Amino acid sequence: MSGEATLWARSKARLEELGVEPKRSLGQNFLISATVVEKILEAVRNQNPQALIEVGPGVGALTEELIKLNLPLTLVELDRTFANYWQKRGLSVHESDALQVDWNQLSLPPQTTLVSNLPYQISTHIVIDRCLGPEAISSMVLMFQKEVAQRFTARPRTEAYGLLSVMAQSHFHLAKVCDAAPGDFKPPPKVASQVLSFKRKNFAFPGRSQGFLTFLKAAFAQRRKLLSKNLLALGRESTLNQKSIEALLEQLGVGPKVRAEELSQEQFLRLFELLELN
Fold this sequence. Notes:
This protein has helices at residues 3-18, 34-46, 63-67, 80-88, 123-132, 146-153, 163-171, 209-219, 227-230, 242-252, 265-277; strands spanning 30-31, 51-55, 73-77, 92-95, 112-117, 137-145, 172-180, 185-186, 193-200. The protein folds into two domains: 3-200, Vaccinia Virus protein VP39 (Rossmann fold, 3-Layer(aba) Sandwich), CATH 3.40.50; 209-277, rRNA adenine dimethylase, C-terminal domain (Helicase, Ruva Protein, domain 3, Orthogonal Bundle), CATH 1.10.8.100. The strands form two sheets. Strands 4-3-2-5-6-9-7 form a seven-stranded mixed β-sheet, with helices on both faces. It has a two-stranded antiparallel ribbon with strand order 1-8. It contains eleven helices and nine strands. Helix 3 (63-67) links the parallel strand 2 and strand 3. With 278 residues, the protein is α/β, with parallel strands linked by helices. Helix 7 crosses helix 11 (265-277). Helices cover 39% and strands 18% of the residues.
């Protein structure tokens, strides 16, 4: 029996044991590819973590292998049946929506790696939130819908480039781990997937990540509008007007007619600094 067949047989047996079916409402597409699992584990090991946290362990294709790494492991699981199962296995489980967890109260040790085959509907929120902290999460290995993964790694002047690209690249070093086809999951999703690794970098403006996010939301609010007009929405019209913003863009060396998608991640950091100083 192949690795994929063995993994699905184990997952199917656990589903039957627990008397549950995959819930599409929770984005439960269970990973059954032993090849993809091993590539994720390799990426995790390369981060040299001191602890692990997994979002949405489900039937445990990844979880069973993470346990073997003999590191402190925390699970965040919304589905009560799965949460109870892993608690009975003796693991630390937070039965909660990952978007509602107070991550700063998890008491994670430094050099914790976040691992997840993320439900597609929460994937972008999880990454943006982790840009904001906690700092203890020093790295991540995450599965995304392929189109979403490409938005995180996109370069300027491309259709995929936007807020997600700049925010993620300003807080993490990103690298592709592998692709995953619909057939690598049960039930198979309608889209292809991709795994990315994230290694936290020192953000240029410590303690200002939330302000930087607010700045980027304004910058990319309307992609076809000039950046100078979008930035007026920051709510600082008393000190920030069209002419003063255009002057800052000239100082940046891009000119007043630039759109947000044309600036590099480094230029956004510099523009944020200029705005903070004015």
